[in-house]
Design a protein that fits this description.
heterodimer; A: 291 residues; mainly alpha; MetI-like fold; 76% helix; B: 442 residues; alpha/beta; D-Maltodextrin-Binding Protein, domain 2; 2 domains; 14% strand; globular; SBP (chain B); signal (chain B)
Chain lengths: 291, 442
């Protein structure tokens, strides 16, 4: 019986195991191997270069920029998308009809291509676009994609627009799961309307918020399409990201070994950052008695 | 049982990993399926655009009709994520073609550096192609630092500058200015008349450090100012400091006159926001469709790059936007020879180059483009192509250094982009760029 269960267990887990081996373990080990060589995938021979790719990457201004820009994007994107998603969720939750329709409407940007949205924004922010012409008429002349802060902000804004609907769905489901009786009981206990959100909704929404925050922080480590289309990582290195740097080194400079080292550094930075963020969120939740 | 399953899993994992760790290389002789039944099959990868693919398909079909011992499969290079990366992946996966076009000199240097290419001059019949096609002079600057020719240029666009002639006429000029001081004079008159409505050079790429963008601003001006100095030769920095500083000072002077707009603008030259820009012959078919109001020698004129005041404008050189054919080392000897024979057949008849020119607007890389009768009808029908044809021998191809992406990024990051934005003095920019280039070349 035990042996039969064991076989069945292997059978059911085999798709995941095979998937993990093919799409995770093999590429991971392959990346490790590449990162200690100077191979560009074309040369008939490769040289083992030890940790020199890592040492070069750690000294590269492009990699430094990618590292810090991730946190700059976090500072812009995470608060923006969280506030917007909560706002959308609260508004939609309060509707008596067509909740689903509105949620789908907000979710649509998530399904749209990052290339298309980036190109539309590029057109809107063109120097000769009606928006900029009107702004210049009012004496406001901003080089949106040519100034470090505005370029960062624009990319953060596009991402927030894209992900708001998705996170709003998660938060809405959290709101839906809060029992109305809790609010009724709180009202009897004298909780005022203005305190309801902070005292009841937010604590009970914590599990959904935790999920969306972790997802949102994770997004900032994978930014590529919008930056590639809008700024190419510029001006200077102001919007360079991990993915952008890996792409440039692997596919423009054809330095597969170096790009693999950058990819591994990015993985380590992502893992450590998300780990710390998770811990901080858990401490925050526990301190407030939400978990 | 558990142990057996674990062992099986480990063996499978190891096998998959070991197969992935293979360098994926094979020798020319391993590729044995090339010649079957006495017929040699070659794979030809054409540039990823329908016109060029159709041209090579037609050539292949015509050649097969004259030679039943060769079969040529023409397909387009995939562009995901880039055509260079597709070629790199194909070589790694042992599925490289026999021959491909659309290869620039810098990428060819990367491939040659990795022993992925055959030196064309070592294959019998190559010198016949060069003499029959009348391209000795055009081919000369393509020689690599090791003395070999790895690329046969197909076309060579001497990049020219376009001027909005309609605006120039409004400012009192009948022809484009040719020297730096003349250009600056036009800029100050333009700004006096139009203020922020028009700029001399409106182009977002001027502030963008992407490597290839320097071909169409810095290199065009630098080639003209330096008389075609190679800038980087092999792994040595050979830049002409006087010429380079003059180029950067010229750009800085235009900026000071508020003649540069490096902000995001759609089609600034076509809409008249800018009156000066680099133009390749591929532009004209787009203009025919989208901007039919632009007429050669009416609304726009073409010129070689402006030169410093102490340089003769008639001696102006420019950047050659040029790409060519390479033959891959992974092909068998028979395939390599068949590929050269095919190319020899194509270029033995100037009519084939004329067809290319007519179909693509891209000037064939020949010394006799402006004198050979075969091209006269095309140039007569499209006079805007004449200055391109005339300047093929005055065009300098890109560097042959495998690190060209890094090196050209340095030009932008350390000097050109900063000068455009007024962040560095021209001489300081040149010094910083030179130091960074020399460090990168070590």
């Amino acid at each position: 019986m035990e042996q039969r269960n064991n076989k069945l267990g292997w059978l059911f887990t085999s798709p995941y195991l095979i998937y993990s081996v093919v799409f995770f373990f093999v590429p991971l080990i392959w990346t490790f191997f590449l990162s200690i060589t100077d191979w560009n995938m074309i040369k008939p021979k490769f040289n083992f270069v030890g940790i020199s790719n890592f040492a070069d990457a750690l000294q590269s201004p492009n990699v430094h920029a990618a590292f810090w820009n991730t946190y700059r994007f976090m500072l812009i994107f995470v608060p923006l998308v969280t506030v917007l998603a909560i706002g959308v969720a609260v508004l939609v939750h309060g509707l008596s009809r067509f909740k689903g329709l509105f949620l789908i409407g907000f979710f649509l940007p998530y399904l749209s291509s990052g290339v298309v949205s980036a190109l539309i924004v590029k057109g809107l922010l063109s120097y000769t676009s009606p928006i900029n012409t009107a702004l210049r008429g009012m004496g406001i002349d901003i080089d949106w994609l040519g100034t470090p802060f505005t370029a960062l902000f624009i990319v953060g804004l596009i991402l927030a627009w894209k992900f708001t609907g998705y996170y709003a769905l998660i938060i809405t489901s959290g709101l839906e799961s809060i029992d109305k009786e809790v609010y009724e009981a709180a009202a009897i206990d004298g909780v005022k309307d203005g305190q309801r959100f902070w005292r009841i909704t937010l604590p009970l929404l914590y599990p959904s918020l935790y999920t969306t925050l972790i997802l949102a922080f994770g997004v900032t480590f994978g930014i590529f399409t919008e930056v590639y289309q809008l700024t190419g990582g510029g001006p200077g290195n102001a919007t360079n990201t991990w993915q952008m740097e890996i792409f440039k080194q692997a596919f423009s400079n054809l330095q597969s070994g170096y790009a693999s080292a950058v990819a591994l550094l990015a993985s380590v930075a992502t893992f450590i950052s998300i780990f710390i963020i998770r811990k901080l969120l858990e401490v925050w939740g526990k301190r407030n008695g939400w978990v | 049982m558990k142990k057996r399953n674990s062992a099986l899993l480990m063996v499978t994992l190891s096998a998959v990993m070991l197969s992935a760790c293979s360098t994926g290389q094979n020798t020319a002789n391993d590729n044995s399926n090339a010649a079957a039944g006495g017929v040699t099959t070659i794979e030809f990868w054409a540039a990823p655009n329908p016109t060029q693919q159709a041209y090579w398909q037609e050539m292949a079909k015509a050649y097969e009709a004259t030679n039943d011992k060769v079969k040529i499969n023409v397909s387009a290079i995939k562009e995901s994520p880039t055509s260079e990366a597709s070629i790199q992946s194909a070589i790694a996966a042992k599925s490289a073609p026999t021959i491909s076009e659309n290869i620039n000199r810098g990428f060819a240097a990367q491939l040659a550096d990795s022993e992925a290419l055959v030196p064309l001059d070592t294959i019998s019949g190559f010198s016949d192609i060069v003499s029959a096609r009348d391209m000795t002079k055009t081919l000369e600057p393509w020689k690599f630092a090791d003395g070999h020719q790895y690329v046969l240029p197909i076309y060579s666009n001497p990049m020219l500058f376009g001027w909005r002639l309609d605006t120039l006429k409004e400012l009192g000029y009948d022809a484009p200015p040719k020297t730096y001081s003349e250009v600056l004079e036009v800029t100050s008159k333009l700004k006096a008349k139009y203020g922020d409505k028009k700029y001399l050079w409106a182009k977002p790429d001027l502030a963008d450090p992407t490597a290839w963008k320097r071909w169409f601003d810095f290199y065009m001006l630098y080639d003209a100012a330096s008389g075609g100095n190679k800038f980087i030769e092999g792994s040595s920095f050979t830049g002409d400091e006087k010429a380079g500083t003059e180029v950067l000072s010229f750009v800085d002077d235009i900026r000071k006159e508020k003649g540069i707009l490096s902000r995001q603008v759609t089609d600034p030259f076509e809409t008249g926001t800018g009156i000066f820009t680099d133009i390749g012959p591929w532009t004209f078919s787009m203009w025919d469709q989208k901007y039919p109001n632009l007429k050669y020698n009416e609304t726009y004129a073409l010129s070689m790059p402006p030169v410093p005041d102490d340089v003769d404008p008639a001696q102006s050189k420019t950047f050659a936007d040029t790409k060519g054919l390479v033959i891959y080392a992974s092909a068998t000897k028979a395939q390599q020879q068949a590929a050269v024979d095919f190319i020899k057949w194509v270029y033995s008849d100037a009519a084939n180059d004329a067809k290319w020119f007519k179909d693509t607007n891209l000037p064939p890389a020949r010394d006799d483009l402006s004198t050979n009768e075969a091209f006269k009808p095309i140039l007569d029908a499209s006079p805007q192509l004449k200055p391109y044809a005339e300047n093929v021998p005055n065009a300098v191809p890109p560097m042959d250094n495998a690190k060209y992406n890094d090196l050209q990024t340095i030009i932008g990051v350390e000097a050109f982009n900063k000068v455009v934005k007024g962040e560095i003095a021209p001489a300081d920019g040149w010094a910083a760029m030179k130091a960074a280039l020399e460090k990168a070349l070590k």
